[in-house]
Amino acid sequence: MATSLLPWSDKALALLCRMNNFHLPGSSLVRCRRFVIEGQQVGWVPPVVASKLTRFPEVFTSSGSGEAGAVALCPALDSYRKRSEAVNTVLQQLREEDTFSCLRGWRDEVTLIGAMVGTHDGTEKVCARARARAPHRSLLKRRSFVRLFACLFVLQKYEVMPRFCDQSLMCMERAATSLFGVKRYGVHVNGYRQEEDGTVTMWLSRRSRTKQTYPGTLDNLVAGGLAAGTSLQETLIKECEEEACIPACIAETACPVGTVSYTYEDEDGVFPESQFVFDLKLPLEFRPQIGDGEVQDFYLWPLDQVKEVLVSEDFKPNSAMVVLDFLIRHSYVHPDAEPYYQEFVTGLHKSL
Asked: What is the DSSP string of 309-327?
């Protein structure tokens, strides 16, 4: 049966199975080797990657095969800096040799922290209302609406660590993380508003057609990866500002509501990911605006329409999971109406 003809529940279940396929029968899990640093597993190395790493014995050691085997960093690489630099050198060589297609997406992304002094036209009123709703969370309640930043450019890389609560052991270029199956973290924001009649609507974005991944698809209002050395709150505020021109005084009112976690694999490797989810209730008069060009449009839709589209090919899959989580938490998906309700809940919160 064509996917488009399936009931909504079946489509949602298929989405969750797709995003958790690494743990399904027939995946590469049994053939992957553990990626180990200082005796701690931090990822999974697919067989094709493990075979290429044998060329670099000064960086990697290999033992055993499959789940019982391991690819480890050499003991001489005994600091964060040494590990990061050594692995980056290897990855740069593999990139130049075009060994793995995922490295063509090497971003060398730069985060601008500063060099900007400005105001947000028309935001004083909505910022004041946002502060009134949550004055204890606003860091700017005693400050001017003029925002001043120091000038600093930093390359974006991802931290590598066994668990989110653990100390980072090294950092790695984003495009390479799937080759080692290391955990990736991000921030996703459900932007919604409550209409005057009490109904809830949700703001969605449509990704730019120039994006390297999922170009032109629907997405959460705001989302972004957690770069090395950056906190969740900093990422939230930065992405809100850059992608949707949401000022900090509004972004700071977002409520952390949990995580959505999953592990999938494709031709580029293994992707264990956990997204920290925030709900952001937006003022009725606020309208997101295109900021850094990663978004081409914004839509304000009723939740019934959002529910239907999230299971379509027009929605970025992991962002669709974040929206599904929102619908469950706000009781727009009910266990009496959805036969796979329990599978939905467990599929959104897999251990990495």
From this structure: HTTSTTB-HHHHHHHHHHH
What CATH number has the domain bearing residue 219? Answer: 3.90.79.10
State the DSSP string of 101-124: GGGGG----EEE----EE--TT-H
pTM of the shown model: 0.86
Counting the structural domains of the chain, the total is 1
By residue range, what is the domain housing residue 225?
3-25+114-151+183-347
Nearest in space to 300 (alpha carbons), one of 162, 194, 161, 198: 194
55-80 in b/e burial notation, b at 16+ Cβ within 10 A? Answer: ebeebbbbeeeeeebbbbbeeebeeb
Q: Where residue 129 falls among pLDDT bands split at 50, 70, 90?
A: low
Considering the domain boundaries, does residue 224 fall inside one? Answer: yes
pLDDT in tens, 132-168: 554 444 443 333 333 333 333 445 699 999 999 999 9
